[in-house]
Amino acid sequence: MILTRGCLRLRWSLLRSYSTAPDIRSITASRRAGRKKVGPLAEKDGHPTTPARTRFAPSPTGFVHLGSLRTALYNFLLARATGGQFLLRIEDTDQTRKKDGAEDDIYEALRWAGVEWDEGPEVGGECGPYRQSERLGIYKEYAEKLLESGHAYRCFCTKDRLDKLRDSAQKMKPPSMATYDRYCYHIDHETSAAKAASNEPFTIRLKAPESYPVMKDLLHGELDLQVQSNYSDPRYDDPVLFKTDGFPTYHLANVVDDHLMRITHVIRGEEWLPSTPKHLALYNAFGWTPPEFIHIPLLTSLEDKKLSKRTGDVGIKAYKENGILPEALVNFVALYGWSPPLGAQENGTNKKKKREATAMGEIMTMKDLIANFNLNGLTKGNAKVSESKLEFFNSYFLRTRIEDPEKRRELALEIQPALISKFSDISTKKQHKHKFEVEYIEKVLTVFKGSLKTLPELPNVASYAFTDLPSYGSKEGMDYISDLSITREGDDAVKFLQEFAVWWTRAENVPSVEEIDAKIKFFARESGYKPTTVFHALRFAIAGSVPGAPLPLLVDLLDPDTVTIRIVNALRILKL
Question: Which has the closest alpha carbon to 296: 270, 275, 271?
Answer without folding.
Answer: 270
